[in-house]
Amino acid sequence: MIIRWQYSFMLALLIGFTVGCESQSNTAIRQQAQLEAEQSLKQAAAEMEMVTAQVGQVAVAVMTATAGNKTAGTVTFTQGADGIAVEATIRGLTPGDHAIHIHQFGDLRLDNGKGTGGHYNPQGHDHALPSTEMRHAGDLGNLTADADGNASYSITINNVTLDGAHNPIIGRGVIIHAKVDDGGQPTGNAGARVSQGVIGYSQPSDG
Ligand SMILES: [Cu+2]
């Protein structure tokens, strides 16, 4: 009799314990799943916010002449929803076409522009003009100077970001060359570097 009572008691305890554990662990799993779902939602929202924040962000390269040249001006990079709008306003060129590239380094210590290294090409593509999608990330094509040596050039690119994960360009160099970029290998036969600048964050305008 006593044995049977003890046995029933133990059984009841065991069942109670097992059920308790199960419901406890189910609750824990549910809570964990909920937590994870909330976290991934929050992360997605944060990423969205970051992309939205980057739209409208502007970077600028102030271009100065290399030794023996007088080519100068500005190149701005504005992040839009569909890519980066590049706008160059340059003076002091010889009339005609001139290559414009993003080069690897933002190092202007050499007065011949060579401190900026080669073309910015993180994906290891062949050199090409912007009409070719697979090209150096820094291949911006050519700007055309008028008879007075002034050039305005606009191009929208989506193979780089200002400071995102994909081919970031902030802190890198911009070079304008003496000659036209003919799209040839390895770097378009564009000749000497007549103007150099570094891509930096622009001061937000008050307006
Ligand atoms: Cu170049």
Structure description:
The chain has two domains: 1-54; 58-201, Superoxide dismutase, copper/zinc binding domain (Immunoglobulin-like), CATH 2.60.40. 26% of the residues lie in helices and 30% in strands. The protein has one helix spanning 2-54, and strands at 58-65, 72-80, 83-91, 96-103, 139-145, 151-157, 173-177, 193-201. It has an eight-stranded antiparallel β-sheet with strand order 5-4-7-8-1-2-3-6, with no helix packed on it. Copper (II) ion binds at residues 99, 101, 103, 119, 175, 177, 190.
Summarize the structure.
With 207 residues, the protein is α+β, with helices and mostly antiparallel strands.
SSE layout and pairing:
Layout: H1 2-54, E1 58-65, E2 72-80, E3 83-91, E4 96-103, E5 139-145, E6 151-157, E7 173-177, E8 193-201
Antiparallel strand pairs: 1-2, 1-8, 2-3, 3-6, 4-5, 4-7, 7-8
Copper (II) ion (CU) is lined by residues 99, 101, 103, 119, 175, 177, 190.
Helix-strand topology string: HEEEEEEEE
Principal-axis shape equals elongated
Which ligands occur here? copper (II) ion
Rg (CA only): 30 Å
- Please report which band the strand proportion falls in: under 5%, 5-15%, 15-25%, 25-35%, 35-45% or over 45%: 25-35%
Biggest sheet, spatial arrangement of strands: 5-4-7-8-1-2-3-6
CATH homology-level superfamily of the largest domain:
Superoxide dismutase, copper/zinc binding domain
